[in-house]
Amino acid sequence: MNEAAIHTILSRLLLGGSLPGGTKLGEHRLAELFGVSRERVRKVLHRLGHERLLEIVKNRGAFTIEPDLREGRVVYEARRILESGMVAHLADHLTEAQIARLREHVDAEADALRRGDQATWQKLSAEFHFLLAEMIGNPIVQRQAHELIGRTIMLVKRYETTLGSACGCEEHRLIFKALAGRERGRAVKAMSSHLSLVETRLRPIICDDAGPSLEALLEEAIATFRSEQGTAASPRHEALAAPAPR
Asked: Which of 76, 158, 231, 246 would bridge with 199, disulfide CB 3.0–4.6 Å?
């Protein structure tokens, strides 16, 4: 398995919010699960640390980050500044093809929510913001947006109430309508309001359930990735192709 695939799998797992803060991601165990060298795993872990999805502690290793609500306020402020500028730019520069792509995306969000598919809705909800950053066409803006969005995804997974689902979906549609109508001021207001509302919906949640182990979650994530890629698991990873125990 190459570094890009390992990065995708670990990113999904970290952004999914299933692992408690402070969980150690040991190089040796990860190398065994992925069937690769520790050096390859180490490169991916350091990349994730650079992206602020992991904490790299010298002489101790890589650990999951415990989302902090106080830091989250600062991150959301940064997102409002950045993404308000993004939609202001997009309102003037979106192509018809990009508008059609955004329409398809918000429709897919609404459909997932209507079907009660929370996992798909959460994935599409995050991708809406990634998609806007991609449409800017500026790699620096895209990199900054990905880091900030990634950090707030972990906050939302940990602290947002389920009430946010329907609200967030409608807020995305309002942003889309403003962009499709090329209404710069309305788009900026809709984005700023949306991010502020998401921030206000964050509440501390106490959960005593330890949940599945790191190994079980990784095995499931690897199996899902292989299924999406349409490739059969190699004999060495046959055990990873089965659903993880719950």
From this structure: 76
Digit-coded pLDDT (tens) for 1-23: 899 999 989 988 887 767 777 88
Cβ contact 30:74 at 8 Å: no
Domain 3-66+208-241 has CATH 2.30.30.50: no
Question: Band of the pLDDT at 210, cuts 50, 70, 90?
Answer: low
End-to-end CA distance of the chain: 25
- pTM, entire model: 0.70
Residue ranges per structural domain of the chain: 3-66+208-241, 69-200
How far apart, in whole angstroms, are the C-alpha atoms of residue 229 and residue 145? 26
The 8 Å CB, 24+ separation contacts for 44-51 are 44/3, 44/6, 44/7, 44/10, 45/10, 47/3, 47/7, 48/7, 48/10, 48/11, 48/14, 51/11, 51/146, 51/147, 51/150
Could you tell me the CATH superfamily of domain 69-200? Answer: GntR ligand-binding domain-like (1.20.120.530)
